[in-house]
């Protein structure tokens, strides 16, 4: 047996069961011996996906030190130590330790959360070994060649070849992306291509492997015995996990921006050293002294608090996201979502619930040509078309009247889910509080013709085909009882892919007639040829061209909406007793293995074939399995009012007709969109993101879901298939074609998803990808941000590949993450603006004072205090500024846009010049004309020191927002309590430094009179006044100052207007009272 064997190889898929068993050297009936199991386990290992060796905490901590800005701080600390500036070295080292510790702790917390998410009960498997009865073992103990039994409701423990099966249906959506379950069989339907010249080792697509069940897929119905072919990392799941790990993780836009900022600061530091050196040499100073001063100033200008702010801000954002059921594995991923302009969404399980539900029921109208013998009232009723429709949003208030529809009380329930469904009669909507008999009989018939079960009524614990589970769930919600336990099933013809229908014959032993009847559901083309009658509006009438055309039109309309349509009918007869066969099942329907006629001689008709029934006797037999209608004659198809009407032409005697099915109507089902999907897509579009849906489903299904959730509309959006992606790739046009506005991609494979993500990234977009299956893992890994569903539906492989895991599977959590990311970047940019302007002002103050031969304006302790303010609580509190709604509505920023834009740079320079010049002016005004005395120097130092500190406080206040004015409705003074406490504490500390004697001795300050404090406040507040003037556009620079984020083009849509620009313009005009040119300004910002 080859080590590289795959379950999708042609010799496994297309070979017979005996050939595969010989190839694997196993006996499916007796299983492997214990000795052989041990030998094979030593060769193939445990049946587990390969896990990376856990990274040691010390190595994880050290990995946080690789960021360029952190390395720059390390270099600064080393230089400070060499120059003897130990206070600077200690403060920088502490900053580095805080940054690494915060990032380390957050990653450890995320890992712990994911481990808790994965700590489920170990999967088990039923295996046959040593020729003994089946036994239960851990799935990890399976080896190739083991014979396993798999039943409905279980997950497949390994990649296996089916050798025996009974109505086996498997949900492979987590692997293939196809939402429709797949029928599996032991006999290949593809033919023996191996024997006809095909390569035995060639692998086939998963969709063509009808004889293979794959690890991790879910068995929806039936059972099988299979032999294990591949285990662990050699399974399709394992190979997908291995391929995913080989993909390189993308650095987030914030990380790229911080790298760029680190390079710019390094370049600026070198320029400072060179400039100070040249100036000092021109003045005749010693080279060593000049170099020492230059290096000291360059180190002082580096904002060592910046990495702390970024780490703390991201960590707080991660904590807020955790409260919203989103586990963030990498800190930068939160901010990256904020600049995502393309969100690729997997349909199945992300936008939809990945569970079928009843969407609509259609009941046929009676053709006018078939109602000539009816009364006028019956003829009017015959023109009604009745539908039962699932509501997108539940009805509120009391249910409206039934609108005169005839009802069937015995099958109705006053506690039905009328808030979730509506009756539609001739396009007029009513509550489904009470069901018409036409609808209730259709649902009842579909339930009888079903093998599914709802465990304790819970949909998530259901066993069976998704279609049947959906019908049972709708019946439960609508108050239609499941009567299968009361009926004895005597015959069943199961659904097959060839026959496309299911027939069930039952008898109600409690009925006085005790006659069998057959119920049928399946594809229209498989059922309709045997239909002769229809039941509509409580009337049984022969089918004519009008009914057939109306039915075909309804099917066409429902199919265009992406719904799966099931045709339901019942018969006037049952198969002859010679055709009866028991259909034992484990669904609790009762007496399914017993013969119908334990005492057949009791009824004279039992010895005759059912084809000899007369019309009324046949109708009665069919009706005997329906509940009686309050004492009405069981021969009537119980309706309302005047009772049911049986209208059958003598030329259509069922006794002589070959087709006797009575058509009840159509049941349309769908995998419905998540309740939050529509709101999520709308919110993402409002935030400037383009939402692209990718699925393995058909075009009609994909477009229908895309329309339901708002991705696709009549005015915008195109679709493309996986085949078109391949054709575009050959022509080198993938990027061009996707940029035309393609928002729906159908029939795509995992390879297509990966190519689409990379093509969008190559076009300059920041791409986020959501998914929950193995087929999504490569794209999740390659995207800038991978978002996995982890609330029980997501696979381990997808969770491993993602950066963010949604523990509640709520797609709207992505919107919250996008808002969080935009707010985080906005706060980080405000912090950088504050730190750079303050650092440059301090650098300029010392440098200019040195060049002008002023006394040293600040001593060492005062410089240390200023560093605490620049990098301490007042600065850090800017990172926790509440989310500004206008910021969240801004288009996402470009990947190429730097953190320090031209607008930010101009703002930093102007603020730094103002702070530096204002502080130097105070210093110059305090220097005496004659020789400076010691007291005068102390006073001048105190005035300079206090002025610079208050400049910092006002500058921090101005940097809380780049567009909103402090004190306005958008930016209340008390909105950021942390900032208020930090600034208040700093001001109290500064007053203590100049008025409390012990601190005066340490900082070499002296008390200042009240008028000097007012003078300082007046000068220092100029930086806030300048900021307000800029935001009010008093300098006519609104185009540059409206907001730092540049507008983006939403590919496939029109140029997006910026809500934040619009809001900023309105606020600024309101505050400034400038109403002129309002229309022109609005046109500009929109």
Automatic annotation (TrEMBL):
Transmembrane segment boundaries? 69-86, 92-108, 265-284, 290-316, 904-924, 936-957, 978-998
InterPro entries the UniProt entry points to: ATPase_P-typ_cation-transptr_C (IPR006068), ATPase_P-typ_cation-transptr_N (IPR004014), ATPase_P-typ_cyto_dom_N (IPR023299), ATPase_P-typ_P_site (IPR018303), ATPase_P-typ_TM_dom_sf (IPR023298), ATPase_P-typ_transduc_dom_A_sf (IPR008250), ATPase_P-type_domA (IPR059000), HAD-like_sf (IPR036412)
The protein's UniProt keywords, in alphabetical order, are: ATP-binding, Membrane, Nucleotide-binding, Translocase, Transmembrane, Transmembrane helix
Q: Which SMART domains match?
A: Cation_ATPase_N
Q: Which GO terms describe its molecular function?
A: ATP binding; ATP hydrolysis activity
User: Ranges for the Cation-transporting P-type ATPase N-terminal domain?
Assistant: 11-85
GO cellular component terms, semicolon-separated: membrane
| Region (Disordered), start-end ranges | 574-614
Its membrane topology, per UniProt? Answer: Multi-pass membrane protein
The superkingdom of the source organism is Eukaryota
Which Gene3D superfamilies is this protein grouped with?
Calcium-transporting ATPase, cytoplasmic domain N (3.40.1110.10), Calcium-transporting ATPase, cytoplasmic transduction domain A (2.70.150.10), Calcium-transporting ATPase, transmembrane domain (1.20.1110.10), HAD superfamily/HAD-like (3.40.50.1000)
Q: Where are the compositionally biased (Low complexity) regions?
A: 588-600
Acidic residues composition-biased segments: 601-614
Q: Can you say where in the cell this protein is located?
A: Membrane
NCBIfam families annotated for this entry? ATPase_P-type (TIGR01494)
Q: PANTHER family, from UniProt?
A: CALCIUM-TRANSPORTING ATPASE
- What name has this protein been given in UniProt? Cation-transporting P-type ATPase N-terminal domain-containing protein
From which organism does this entry originate? Chrysophaeum taylorii
């Amino acid at each position: 047996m080859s080590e590289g064997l795959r379950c999708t190889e042609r010799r496994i898929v297309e070979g017979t069961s005996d050939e595969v068993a010989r190839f694997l050297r196993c006996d499916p009936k007796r299983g492997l011996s214990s000795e052989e199991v041990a030998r094979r386990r030593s060769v193939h290992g445990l049946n587990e996906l390969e896990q990376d060796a856990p990274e040691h905490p010390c190595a994880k901590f050290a990995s946080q030190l690789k960021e360029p800005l952190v390395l720059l701080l390390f270099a600064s600390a080393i230089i400070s130590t060499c120059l003897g500036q130990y206070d600077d070295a200690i403060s920088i080292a502490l900053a580095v330790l805080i940054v690494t510790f915060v990032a380390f702790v957050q990653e450890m917390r995320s890992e712990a959360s994911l481990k808790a998410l994965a700590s489920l009960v170990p999967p088990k498997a039923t295996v046959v070994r040593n020729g003994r009865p089946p036994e239960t073992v851990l799935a990890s103990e399976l080896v190739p060649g083991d014979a396993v039994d798999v039943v409905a409701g279980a997950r497949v423990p390994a990649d296996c070849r089916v050798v025996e099966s009974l109505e086996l249906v498997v949900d492979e959506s987590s692997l293939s992306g196809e939402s429709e379950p797949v029928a599996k069989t032991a006999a290949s339907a593809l033919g023996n291509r191996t024997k006809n010249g095909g390569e035995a080792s060639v692998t086939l697509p998963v969709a063509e492997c009808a004889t293979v069940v794959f690890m991790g897929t879910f068995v929806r119905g039936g059972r099988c015995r299979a032999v294990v072919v591949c285990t662990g990392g050699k399974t399709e799941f394992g190979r997908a996990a291995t391929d995913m790990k080989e993909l390189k993780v993308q650095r987030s836009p914030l990380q790229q921006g911080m790298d760029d900022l680190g390079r710019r600061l390094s370049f600026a530091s070198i320029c400072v050293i060179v400039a100070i050196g040249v100036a000092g040499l021109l003045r005749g100073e010693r080279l060593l002294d000049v170099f020492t001063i230059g290096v000291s100033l360059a180190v002082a200008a580096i904002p060592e608090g910046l990495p702390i702010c970024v780490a703390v801000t991201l960590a707080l954002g991660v904590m807020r996201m955790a409260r919203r059921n989103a586990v963030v594995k990498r800190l930068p991923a939160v901010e990256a979502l904020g600049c995502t302009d393309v969100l690729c969404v997997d349909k199945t399980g992300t936008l939809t619930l990945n569970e079928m539900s009843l969407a609509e029921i259609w009941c046929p109208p009676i053709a006018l040509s078939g109602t000539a013998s009816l009364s006028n009232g019956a003829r009017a009723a015959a023109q009604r078309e009745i539908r039962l429709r699932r509501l997108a949003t539940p009805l509120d208030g009391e249910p409206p009247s039934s609108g005169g529809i005839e009802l069937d009380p015995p099958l109705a329930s006053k506690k039905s889910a009328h808030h979730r469904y509506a009756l539609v009669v001739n396009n007029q909507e009513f509550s489904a509080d009470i069901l018409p008999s036409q609808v209730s009989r259709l649902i009842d018939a579909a339930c009888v013709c079903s093998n599914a079960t709802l465990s304790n009524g819970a949909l998530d614990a259901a066993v069976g085909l998704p279609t049947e589970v959906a019908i049972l769930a709708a019946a439960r919600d609508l108050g239609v009882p499941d009567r299968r336990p009361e009926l004895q099933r005597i015959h069943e013809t199961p659904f097959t892919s060839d026959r496309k229908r299911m027939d069930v014959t039952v008898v109600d032993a409690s009925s006085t007639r005790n006659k069998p009847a057959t119920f049928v559901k399946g594809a229209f083309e498989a059922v309709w040829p045997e239909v002769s009658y229809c039941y509509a509006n409580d009337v049984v009438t022969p089918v004519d061209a009008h009914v057939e055309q109306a039915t075909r039109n309804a099917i066409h309309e429902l199919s265009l909406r992406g719904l799966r349509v099931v045709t339901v009918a019942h018969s006037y007869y049952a198969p002859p007793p010679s055709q009866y066969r028991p259909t034992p099942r484990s669904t609790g329907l009762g007496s399914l293995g017993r013969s119908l006629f334990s005492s057949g001689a009791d009824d004279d008709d039992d010895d005759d074939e059912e084809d000899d029934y007369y019309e009324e006797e046949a109708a009665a037999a069919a009706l005997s399995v329906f509940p009686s209608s309050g004492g009405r004659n069981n021969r009537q198809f119980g309706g309302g009012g005047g009772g049911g009407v049986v209208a059958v032409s003598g030329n259509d005697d069922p006794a002589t007709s070959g087709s006797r099915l009575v058509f009840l109507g159509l049941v349309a089902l769908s995998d419905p969109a998540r309740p939050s999907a529509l709101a999520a897509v709308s919110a993402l579009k409002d935030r400037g993101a383009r939402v692209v849906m990718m699925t393995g489903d058909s075009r009609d299904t994909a477009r229908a879901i895309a329309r339901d959730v708002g991705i696709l509309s009549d005015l915008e959006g195109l679709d493309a298939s996986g085949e078109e992606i391949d054709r575009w790739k050959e022509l080198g046009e993938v990027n061009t074609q996707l940029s035309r506005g393609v928002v729906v991609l159908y029939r795509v494979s995992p390879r297509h998803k990966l190519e689409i993500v990379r093509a969008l990234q190559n076009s300059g977009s920041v791409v986020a990808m959501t998914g929950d299956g193995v087929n999504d893992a490569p794209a999740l890994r390659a995207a800038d941000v991978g978002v996995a569903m982890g609330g029980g539906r997501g696979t381990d492989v997808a969770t491993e590949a993602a950066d963010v895991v949604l523990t509640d599977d709520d797609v709207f959590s992505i919107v919250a993450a996008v808002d969080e990311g935009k707010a985080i970047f906005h706060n980080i940019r405000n912090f950088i603006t504050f730190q750079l302007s303050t650092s440059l002002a301090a650098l300029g103050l010392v440098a200019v004072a040195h060049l002008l031969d002023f006394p040293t304006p600040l001593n060492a302790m005062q410089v240390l205090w200023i560093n605490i303010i620049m990098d301490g609580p007042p600065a850090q509190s800017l990172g926790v500024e509440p989310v500004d709604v206008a910021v969240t509505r801004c288009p996402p920023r470009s990947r190429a846009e730097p953190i320090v834009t031209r607008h930010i740079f101009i703002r930093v320079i102007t603020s730094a010049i103002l702070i530096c010049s204002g502080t130097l002016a105070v210093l110059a005004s305090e220097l005496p004309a004659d020789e400076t005395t010691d007291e005068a120097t102390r006073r001048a130092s105190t005035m300079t020191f206090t002025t610079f500190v208050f400049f910092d406080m006002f500058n921090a206040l101005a940097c809380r927002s780049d567009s909103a004015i402090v004190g306005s409705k958008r930016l209340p003074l008390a909105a950021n309590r942390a900032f208020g406490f930090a600034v208040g504490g700093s001001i109290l500390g500064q007053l203590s430094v100049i008025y409390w004697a012990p601190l005066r001795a340490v900082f070499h300050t002296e008390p200042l009179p009240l008028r000097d404090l007012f003078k300082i406040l007046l000068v220092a507040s100029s930086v806030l006044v300048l900021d307000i003037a800029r935001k009010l556009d008093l300098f006519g620079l609104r185009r540059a100052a409206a907001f730092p984020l540049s507008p983006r083009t939403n590919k496939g849509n029109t140029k997006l207007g910026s809500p934040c620009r619009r809001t900023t313009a309105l606020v600024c005009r309101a505050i400034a009272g400038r109403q002129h040119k309002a229309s022109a300004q609005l046109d500009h910002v929109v």
